[in-house]
Amino acid sequence: PRAYKIEDRIGTPLTQIQAFLPVMESFGFTENLRKSTGGQAFPQMKFSHWQMVNGDPFKEGSSAMDIVMGVQKRKSTDCVAARLRLPRHTGDR
User: Residue 89 and residue 49: Cα distance in Å, rounded?
Assistant: First the structure.
C-alpha cells in the first residue's frame, strides 16, 4: 500500500497513516501488521473506491487473469473457471 497521509495524533503516542490497499493485498494484512509490530499497531479499514484492472481476464499472463487465478486458488473455485472457460488453477499458480 502507498500512504497518502501520515499524521501524528497530538498528545498521544499514536500515528495515523491513511493509504489505499488493494483488496487482494488486504487478506492477511491485519495479522502481518500486528505480528510485525508486536501487537502495537492495529488497522481500521473501510471501503473507499473501485478501480478498473488493466488487462483481459481471458488472456494468459495479463494482470486481470492473474487476479482471477489468485481468487480461484484462494477460494478453490475451479467450477468458476469452467463456466467462464478460463484455465483451471493448477497448484503452483
Answer: 28
Distance (Å, whole) CA 93 – CA 88: 10
Is the CB of residue 19 less than 8 Å from the CB of residue 4?
A: yes
Q: Do 44 and 62 form a contact (C-beta atoms < 8 A)?
A: no
Amino acid at 39: G
Tens digits of residue pLDDT in 42-71: 888 888 888 888 888 888 888 888 888 887
User: H-helix or E-strand containing 6?
Assistant: strand 2-8
Which residue in this structure is represented by grid cell 487476479?
A: 67
